[in-house]
Amino acid sequence: MLRYALKRLLSLILSLAVASLVIFAVIEVAPGDPASFMLGVNAQPDTLAALRAELGLDVSKPQRYLAWVGGMLTGDFGTSYTYRTPVSDMIADRLWVSLPLSLYALTLSTAIAFPAGIYAAARRGKPGDVAVMGATQLGVAVPNFWFAMMLVLIFAINLRWFNAGGFAGWEGGLWTGLHSLTLPAIALALPQAAILARVMRSALLDILGEDFMRTARAKGLSRRQALWRHGVRNALIPVLTIIGLQFSFLLAGSIIIEQVFYLPGLGRLVFQAISSRDLIVVESVVMLLVFAVITVNFLVDLAYAAVDPRLRSRT
Amino acid sequence: MGQSLKRGFVSALALSSALIAGQAWAKDDIIVAMQLEPPHLDPTSAAAQAIDSVVYSNVFEGLTRFMGDGSIVPGLAESWEISDDGTVYTFKLNDGVTFHDGSAMDAEDVKFSLDRARAEDSANAQKALFAGITDVSVVDPLTVQVTLGEPNGNFLFNMAWGDAVIVAPESIDSIKTNPVGTGAYTFAEWVQGDKIVLERNPDYWGEQPALAKATFKFISDPTAAFAAMMAEDVDVFDNFPAPENLPQFEADPRFQVLVGSTEGETILSTNNKQAPFDDLRVRQAVAHAIDRQAIVDGAMFGYGTPIGTHFAPHHPAYVDLTSKSGHDPEQAKALLAEAGYADGFETTLHLPPPSYARRGGEIIAAQLAEVGIKAEIINVEWAQWLESVFKGKDFGLTIVSHTEPMDIGIYARPDYYFQYDNPKFQALMETLNTTTDPDERTKLLGQAQTMIAQDYVNGYLFQLAKTGVAKAGVQGLWVNAPTAAFELSEVSWVE
After folding, report:
1. CB distance from B382 to chain A under 8 Å?
2. CATH assignment of B29-35+178-260+466-493, given 3.40.640.10, 3.40.50.12280, 3.40.190.10, 3.40.50.1820?
3. Which residues 68-97 on chain A approach chain B with CB closer than 8 angstroms?
4. Where do the CATH 3.40.190.10 domains begin and end in chain B?
5. Are B143 and B137 a contacting pair, CB within 8 Å?
6. pLDDT: is A311 or A104 the higher one?
7. Residue B11: band (very low, low, confident or very high) from pLDDT cuts 50, 70, 90
8. Where do you find CATH 3.90.76.10 in chain B?
9. Does the N-terminal or the C-terminal CB of chain B have fewer CB atoms within 10 Å?
10. ipTM of the complex
11. Chain B nearest CA to A157, separation (Å)
């Protein structure tokens, strides 16, 4: 197990190193200069030069890359060009919105998908299965921002149960914070739940056809006992993979939902930073997301090993 | 007995009316929504209008200031004297003005602010406003003398800009995140990406405003803006981004729609140095190919005033020159044929993100196609636009709203991105800048407007409207936008 973990860890570090180089190169070639964006159309050349010097944009790109990577290794992500506050503080503030939102959405999607998937698999071909499959088909096809707008229309504008957007902050207590994240979390969760339910169902159906399931029934377990003890547990591997991917997606992919609900999360930060060419913020946030995705995958790999002992010995 | 009963009744009545009055005054905070969040809060070192929208005159004040109707009135300067030759301005400052940190605002602060803005390493985005200043000297704590190299008829106007507000040397290092000004509101809190909170300054030198607290929220998505307003999450949307939704607000008794004007001349900017636009006849053909009202109706849902030159129609010196570029496709075709482009030509049309450009661009491209000009639409972000169009001058046509007030002077800069190089116009601007007599200035401004209209420098489209949406109970809002600002001092709730 330890060897397996170390090997995974090494590939994690290598991936991060390559990612940092690619991110920096790709983002730095985008046309546009943060200083001229800030100073607008009436700026004089000497003013621009003064600002570029102040922002540290007058040194060469390799130097800036090394400074950036070196800083990150010591936990210093640099200072935002536009906001002029430390990038790490900005990211930390935004994570307090994006991370709970992703976890909330993931919890909701799992809570919906597991029962729906298991129910559909257990009732394969029956009306219940058809209904669940139809609903999930719809869930996969409809984009989450459309769900978001419908939720706002019904629950914010007409029923007034929730605000149309914005984040109330955690200072008012856990409930206030969660309440303001509920509509966005549902909008994010529904399409994910649809995908997850379909994966759960098909994984479970595969398992149900396996020989060991027949053996389980033969040794005297009821359909239900066999399903829960041997079926669901074995179906967890593909489901975990999808959950891992979904978490990364939820963290990085909530840009549109954060726009629709004007939430001060990471996605919105990146969106603003890209348009103002606040390159250091974009680079750092993307790097952080890459780090999150790679780490989650690492944890999922470890979780496989925990669920399936064969994986540990194979390496 | 009868007397005391009556007295009791009267006092009960007085008490209840006091309660009602108390209730009527209960609401003294407001939530204002805007599309863009300021990058930081220093109006003297960035071009972002979002900064001024929050802090202008609320947190920071200048020697002079803009009023809602566009006039310039005394601000921190109580009065001034101008020397006979028009080069020395002696400002008398208001007594008893303090910064939010308690320190006094005096002539030294004025000198510091102006010297900082015009310094060699200044990061002021409108450094040209201060270019004429040769000396700033402190006469006594409440008197400051500004000397100009030559007379400048715009000087008091320039000093009203958000880029010319008075800042203090003690708090300058942290101004971007903790602005300390002299205004009626102090900076309270900024949750980045979400909101900025201002609170009433109890020590304000002027009149106390009605509102105790103002929260600025930032909602960039037009759909989200609509939802936030409809769900009554916000009280005011400063400049509502989706004109198509305005009729719905107008029909709803819960809301009021305020339609005014901005200083934004929206123009089809033309690269005057690039063939075939270096030919006056081609530029004139473009002007006649455009149907301004169709663009205002189609792209802005009717909000906006057609213009025929680069000048705001609400300004007293405005000359209506729209007839010079009336919609006439036949004349446009004739002009193109005369210039040797009977079969038309191909060009590029760069469109930055705002809807006036993206929607207006589609319509203009179709109108140009009718006279044979094939304009390839290229959508760009602002950063790209600044790099390739504005700096690189690599474009044929582009659509931009020039939002700075009184910016006709940009036509005197031959290296400006549309590259209009006319020595006569440059001489005219020289004369205008050194003219202080109001009537003479009006005459010169009229000549300048006519000159650029006759040269068809750019396709003049329309004056950008300001479309505010507010709850019905809010009063005292600026209808027009003479400068980027959300002035809180007059705002209150009716009950």
Report:
1. yes
2. 3.40.190.10
3. 82-85, 90, 93-94
4. 29-35+178-260+466-493
5. no
6. A104
7. very low
8. 62-170
9. N
10. 0.80
11. 5
Homologous superfamily, domain B262-464: Dipeptide-binding Protein; Domain 3 (3.10.105.10)
Topology (CATH level 3) of domain B62-170: Dipeptide-binding Protein; domain 1 (3.90.76)
- pLDDT tens by residue, B268-321: 999 999 989 999 999 999 999 999 999 999 999 999 999 999 999 999 899 999
CA distance B56 to B79: 21
Rounded average pLDDT over B343-349: 95
Amino acid at B304: G
**Tokens for A140?**
């996969």
Strands B29-34, B213-218: pairing kind: parallel
Check residue B16 and give its pLDDT. 45
pTM over 0.95: no
Among residues A224, A210, A190, A217, the alpha carbon closest in space to that of A116 is found at A190
Where exactly does CATH 3.10.105.10 map onto chain B? 262-464
pLDDT, greater one: B401 or A225: B401
pLDDT at B26: 62
How far is residue A46's CA from residue A49's CA, in Å, rounded to a whole number? 5
Residues of A in contact with B40 (CB under 8 A): 82-84
Which candidate from B125, B176, B384 shows the least CB-CB separation from A40?
B125
Contacts of A86 in chain B (CB under 8 A): none
pLDDT digits (tens, 9 = 90+) for A39-70: 888 788 888 888 888 888 888 888 888 888 88
Per-residue pLDDT tens over the stretch B104-134: 999 999 999 999 999 988 889 899 899 899 9
Mutation site, A28, A37, A183, interface B, largest B CB count within 10 A: A37
In terms of DSSP H, where are the helices of B377-490? 382-384, 423-433, 438-454
Q: Is A264 on the interface with B (CB under 8 A)?
A: yes
- Rounded CA separation B302/A114 (Å): 52
C-alpha distance from residue B378 to each of A73, B268, B300, B397 (Å): 40, 14, 20, 10
Query: CB-based burial of residue A242 (10 Å sphere; 0-12 exposed, 13-18 middle, 19+ buried)?
Result: buried
- Split at pLDDT 50, 70, 90, the class of A289 is confident
> Strand pairing partners for B144?
B91, B138
| Rounded Cα distance, A93 and B305, in Å | 43
